[in-house]
Write a structure and sequence with these properties.
The structure holds 2 protein chains of 2 kinds. Chain A is α+β, with helices and mostly antiparallel strands. Among the domains of chain A are: 5-52, Uridine Diphospho-n-acetylenolpyruvylglucosamine Reductase, domain 2, CATH 3.30.43; 225-315, CO dehydrogenase flavoprotein, C-terminal domain (Enolase-like, domain 1, 2-Layer Sandwich), CATH 3.30.390. Helices cover 30% and strands 18% of the residues of chain A. In chain A, the strands form 3 sheets. A 5-stranded antiparallel sheet of chain A has the order 4-5-8-6-7. A 3-stranded parallel sheet of chain A has the order 1-3-2, covered by helices on one side. In chain A, strands 9-10-11 form a 3-stranded antiparallel sheet, sandwiched between helices. In chain A, β4 and β5 (67-70) form a beta hairpin. Chain B is of the alpha+beta class. Chain B has 2 domains: 2-121, Roll (Ubiquitin-like (UB roll)), CATH 3.10.20.30; 129-208, DNA polymerase, domain 1 (Orthogonal Bundle), CATH 1.10.150.120. Chain B has helices at 10-29, 32-37, 66-73, 118-121, 129-136, 146-161, 180-186, 197-208, and strands at 44-51, 54-61, 92-95, 98-101, 114-116. Chain B has a 5-stranded mixed sheet with strand order 2-1-5-3-4, sandwiched between helices. In chain B, α5 crosses α8. Classes of the chains: A alpha+beta, B alpha+beta.
Chain lengths: 316, 212
């Protein structure tokens, strides 16, 4: 690990302003992903701003009837919250499908959204990777791509976003609330929060330099059956090959988002509208522009079958 | 574990070799103390924690993980370093009542925290019920993952009692049951290369007072 200076932030704006003023500074909250990457020198911040003392660890009801989740609410606490379990079951299900108990106790809501890909070529510093070292090429294209993306990828990068929680947030139409270094705030719809790689896979989110996530807001609950189905190589503590987050009403209408297949939680509005027609129609639309590789083409069939299983479960 | 009287332990040998390496390494660059005084010395920060009930005060290289602080600075070597990347669970300790991977957190982030390691759960003469159950059920072979397994197991029972749901909880609207299925799922962050899993599950069931 490279040496770094360390400070404990005193306020959200102080943290944002300092991060903006110091190139190479990073926020640290749970640290479970950042420290892993710092040990490998994939991340090399010269300064860490510890935001753990800033509060931002409460879940409160919004005037609109939704929930506002503080950026520092731990994954365990978010999953266990009674209101989340009752009205946003897909979120609890996604959270407890991810990582291990130890990691969920540390990992935060904001940090989960910001975690980086587990593409093995991103992690292996001896391999080219446009995300880790822009312009160096992509080792995954033409390499072992079984875990990697089939849609939304580019010729520069085929990495997937690893989060389960974010897939549920996407199907729930969450919005990410931030504070900029000048103290102003904004809300970024989750659909626009994660960026597709294009030619700049190193740019992963809509956040500006120094911009700090302060909370994530969920809209008023819509009812329906909430399902998160994760398919993986082990029954527990493994990243998704494919995951499906769905909220489906009694009339068969609803919303569906996929994990494990794309650089961001994958949802297409037109595919949502096809839910009453069944898994084939939904899947065809979700993967209309897919560019699978030989190793990961199976994900498209796997996703279709998982969607079919989820629709069947929603019908009861 | 006790060492035979007069015997040289493996740890002593490792310590001696490490000291030898340090002396050899210092010949070209001056003493370790001088090296630390150099202007380019890595940044340090102070942290106070309560570890196993005892107040500690350390000034550490900011890069020091909680795991390294416990092992290398406080000499609490019960907590083990396995993968050092949060994948194996050997470094599991309990901080403010919750189990975490001590390898994936910086010591300086734990100002004012209460840390419990395997040394704080029980002693040779007064084992924690989970330690006693691991012995009774052969919940280990080589023992390397065991401190992490036991810290995790103790915290898992508390998590179930606190009503925290898991991936195998059928009805997330209700409290999870104290079942072996729940315990097994929640222990997935602790890897045992010897494969003592079923015996660990039996030990946990005994402490929880349920049928394995």
């Amino acid at each position: 690990m490279r040496p770094f200076t360390y400070e404990r932030a005193t306020s959200a704006q102080d943290a944002a302003a300092k991060a903006a003023a110091m190139p190479g500074a990073r926020f640290i909250a749970g640290g479970t992903n950042l420290l892993d990457l710092m040990k490998l020198e994939i991340e090399t911040p010269g300064h860490l701003i510890d935001v753990n003392g800033l509060g931002m660890d409460q879940i409160v009801e919004t005037p609109e009837g939704g929930l506002r989740i503080g950026a520092l609410v731990r994954n365990t606490d978010l999953a266990a919250d009674k209101r989340v379990r009752k009205d946003y079951g897909v979120l609890t299900r996604a959270l407890v499908a991810g990582a291990s108990g130890q990691l969920r106790n540390k990992a935060t809501t904001a940090g989960n959204l910001l975690q980086r890909t587990r593409c093995p070529y991103f992690y292996d510093v001896n391999m080219p990777c446009n995300k880790r070292k822009p312009g160096s090429g992509c080792g995954a294209i033409g390499g072992f791509s079984r875990q990697l993306g089939v849609i939304g990828t580019s010729e520069a990068c085929i990495a997937t976003h690893p989060s389960d929680m974010a897939v549920a947030m996407r199907v729930l139409d969450a919005s990410v609330e931030t504070m900029r270094p000048d103290g102003t705030t904004r809300a970024i719809p989750i659909a626009e929060f994660h960026k597709l790689p294009g030619q700049t896979p190193q740019t992963e989110t809509a956040l500006e330099q120094g911009e700090l996530i302060i909370s994530v807001a969920l809209p008023k609950p819509t009812g329906g059956t909430h399902i998160y189905r994760k398919v993986r190589d082990r029954a527990s503590y493994a990243f998704a090959l494919v995951s499906v987050a769905a909220v489906i009403g009694r009339d068969g209408k609803g919303a569906v988002a996929l994990g494990g297949v794309a650089p961001k939680p994958w949802r297409v509005q037109e595919a949502d509208a096809l839910l009453p027609k069944g898994a084939q129609a939904v899947s065809d639309r979700l993967f209309a522009e897919a560019t699978p590789r030989e190793d990961n083409a199976f994900k498209i069939m796997l996703a279709k079958r998982t969607i079919a299983s989820v629709i069947a479960e929603a019908k009861g | 574990m006790t060492q035979g009287c007069g015997a040289i332990s493996r740890r002593d040998v490792l310590k001696t070799s490490a000291a030898g390496a340090a002396i050899a390494g210092s010949l070209g660059t001056g003493s370790v103390a001088m090296a630390q005084a150099e202007p380019n010395a890595p940044p340090t920060a102070a942290v106070r924690m309560k570890v196993n009930g005892k107040q500690t005060s350390l000034t550490l290289d900011t890069r020091t993980t909680l795991l390294d602080a416990l092992r290398e600075h406080l000499k609490l070597t019960g907590t083990k370093k396995g993968c050092d990347h949060g994948q194996c669970g050997a470094c599991t300790v309990i901080v403010n009542g919750r189990r975490i991977n001590s390898c994936l957190t910086l010591a300086v982030m734990h100002e004012g925290d209460e840390v419990t390691t395997i040394e704080g759960l029980g002693t040779v003469g007064d084992l924690h019920p989970m330690q006693a159950a691991f012995v009774e059920h052969d919940g280990f072979q080589c023992g390397y993952c065991t401190p992490g397994q036991i810290c995790s197991a103790v915290a898992v029972l508390e998590e179930i009692r606190a009503g925290i749901p898991s991936h195998v909880t059928e009805d997330i609207g209700a409290a999870p049951g104290m079942t072996t299925l729940e315990m097994r799922e929640r222990m997935s962050g602790n890897i045992c290369r010897c494969g003592a899993y079923s015996n660990i599950a039996e030990a946990m069931a005994q402490v929880a007072g349920v049928k394995a």
